[in-house]
Every structure is written in structure tokens, then in C-alpha cells.
Amino acid sequence: MGQMTGRLSHTPVKVRLLALGTALLCASPHVQAAGEADGERAAIEHCLEIIRPCQMSDGNIRVNGGGEAAWAVPYFGNLAAMALLAANDVRRNPEDVVRVGRWLSWYARHQEADGTICDCEGTASSCKSNGKRDSTDSYAATFLMAVGRYTQALAKPPSAEILRAAAKALAAVEAVVQDDGLTIAKPDYAIKYLMNNVEVHQGLTEGARLFASVGMEKESQKAAAMAARMAGSMGKFWSDRDACFAYALDTKDQGSGGLSDPYPHGLAQLFALSYMRPPRPGLWARVIRAFKPDDKGIPAERWLIAAKRNAGSKELDELRRATINAALRFSGKDVYVGRPAMTVIALLDGTARFPDVPASGANR
To answer: Is residue 201 situated within a structural domain?
Structure first.
């Protein structure tokens, strides 16, 4: 998820989400965990208890569970679904798998003909499309991931409706692929965002496996080919001059970047440090000098995901504790569903982790 001119892709959604989480982290008293394992379990269970009430009666997942007013962003719904599935992998909960199935069916019923989907606004009993979306590429890519993980949890193919929706999501991604294999956020906004492209590669990777597992070979081969082509251009985001990743590239592949702002500059680096391979020497050290986990826009759980691939044991333990302590202070009224979802994924790691992204290709 990246930044658009004058506003953010996936924002005001993302900015409000991250600002709320940071306010909680800064303003709330420190919570001591009873022990690392117990603390992690308590944090995960607390996050799940926030996620579940966000699902409305029709299966849609809104950004928080408090109050009658409802706002739903499918990107965050996909993250919530993957968090429920990740927890189910560790401790079986058939009801959570059913919840995910209801979400994916809702998504399928509300896709546009081209495979895109819009945000919804209204009330808990009547939340309707507002005709807006912050991106095409990340919404569709995370849906492919959610369907793939749901299929694994079922140990059988999902409904034909969900599989048709997955094929349409692949078409939505294809519609924003550029000549170099990278994606722009939306057909009418020709900016390539690092965070979106990381998520797209992950969605294509897991989508290729999903389609192969259900006998949709044409779609599997297309997704795999798109991912391979994209991998050949991911290196474009790296700037030798700035010694960090650009968070965005324009139509001429001119990068916007630096390390001045936690969001989007810092968060883009954490995405790269978490998933892009091979790692860039010295980048982790530069990022931890420039920013800290309670800076607005780069919440603790994103630091933890990156730390598991880059940090020493002391730093990793500190970030794990920060993530647990932040999570235990989450409230369904004060935090959007994306944060508890990513916290579950960060703490569980393992099969919950999103795939690595090859970052070959020429640097700028």
C-alpha cells in the first residue's frame, strides 16, 4: 500500500488505522506479560476477540466492531480472514473457518464485473458500496491469498462462487500490470507502489498454488508467469543514491523516497525488510536509526515481522514485547481490524507469514 498525490493509497484508511494504533501505544500504560509464551497467547486471543465482532450478519467485515455506523474496506477484511485462518492452523476453530467462508462469499457477491470491489459505508444492518476503492492491485492480491489459505484450511476446493471470484481477482490484477510487470494502484492512477507490489507478488504466488490445487491450470500458469515477470523488476524500487527503497515509482520510473517520514518512507522499508530478498546490507541499521516502533505510521507488529529476518535476539525480544503490549491494549472501539489481524500474523509467524518476494532487476 503506497502513497498517491495529495492522499495515500489505502488512506485515509491506512493513516487513520496507524494513527489510532500509535496513539494507543504511546498513551496507554505499559502492560507486563506473565511470560513470553503466555503473553503471546493472550495477545493473539485478544486480537481474535476484536476481529470476530467486526463481521456483520451478511458476512462483510467492517473496520471495527463498535457502534451502529459501519465502514468496510475489503483489503482489511482479507487481512482479518487470514488472521483467523492463521490462528486456526495452530488451534483448530471450525467456527472461524466458517466466518472466513462467509467473508469470501460476501466478497464474491459484491465484486464488479472486472474483478474489482468497492468499500462500503452505512450501518451494521445496511452497509452499501460507496463506489470508492483505494487500490485495485492490493485488494485483489490479498483476496487471492485469503482464498488460498481458506482452501488449505478446508482441505478441499471451496465453492464454485469463491473460485470464480478468485479468477476475477486475478484478472483485476492483470488489468493494472505494466510493461515491466509491476502494477499501478488503479487503472486511473499510474503510480507503482512498493508496498502494493510486494502484496501483489505474494498474492500471485499463493494464487498460483491455489489454482493448481483446484485444477485451474490456466489461471495457475498465468499467476506464476505474472509473478516471475514482476520479480524481474522489483529491483527498480532500490535507490543506490539514497541507499533505501523508494516507496513509489512514476510512469518514468522516477522514485519517491528517502527516510524522512515514518509513513510512507519507513513503512515501505519495513515491507522490503520483511519480504524482499536478497536483503540489502545495512538497511535494517539505517531504518532503526531513523525511526522507532511508536512513530506514527509504523506500528510495532510491522517492526516485528521485519525483525524476524533482520534483528539480533535482543532487538527481536524487545519488538516482540512491544507488539504484545500494544495488542493487549487494543480495543474494538479504538483500533481498526487491520492492526489486530497483522498482530496475529506477526506473532504466529511460520505458515502465517506472507511469502518472500524476489527483488532482482536493475537498481536506480
So the answer is: yes
Residue 364 counted as domain residue: no
How many domains does the structure of the chain reveal? 1
How far is it, in rounded angstroms, from Cα 359 to Cα 266? 18
- Which domain does 343 fall in, by range? 3-358
CB 320 within 8 A of CB 294: no
Could you give phi then psi for residue 6, rounded to 5 degrees?
85, -15
Q: How many CA atoms lie within 13 A of 327 on its CB side?
A: 34
Label residues 189-221 b or e (16+ Cβ within 10 Å = b): eebbbbbbbbbbbbbbbbbbbbbeebebeebbe
Q: What is the pLDDT of residue 67?
A: 84
Write down the pLDDT at residue 334: 87
Distance CA 137, CA 239 (A): 23
Local mean pLDDT, 10-residue blocks, the chain (364 residues): 35 38 35 56 97 97 90 98 98 98 98 98 95 97 98 98 98 98 96 98 98 98 98 96 96 94 97 97 97 92 98 96 96 93 98 94 60
Does 363 map to a domain?
no
Q: What is the reported pLDDT for 2?
A: 40
DSSP string, 237-293: GEETTTTEE-SEE-TT--EE--SS-IIIIIHHHHHHHHHEESPPTTHHHHHHHH--T
For 309-324, what is each residue's pLDDT tens digit? 999 999 999 999 999 9
Q: Answer whether 153's CB lies under 8 Å from 85's CB.
A: yes
> How many other CB atoms are found less than 10 A from the CB of residue 92?
10
pTM of the model: 0.91
For residue 189, what is its C-alpha cell? 492512477
Query: Prior bond to 158 cis, omega within 30?
Result: no
32, part of any domain: yes
Q: Pull the grid cell for residue 277.
A: 530478498
Domain of residue 206, CATH code: 1.50.10.10
If one counts every other C-beta atom within 10 angstroms of the C-beta of residue 18, the result is 24
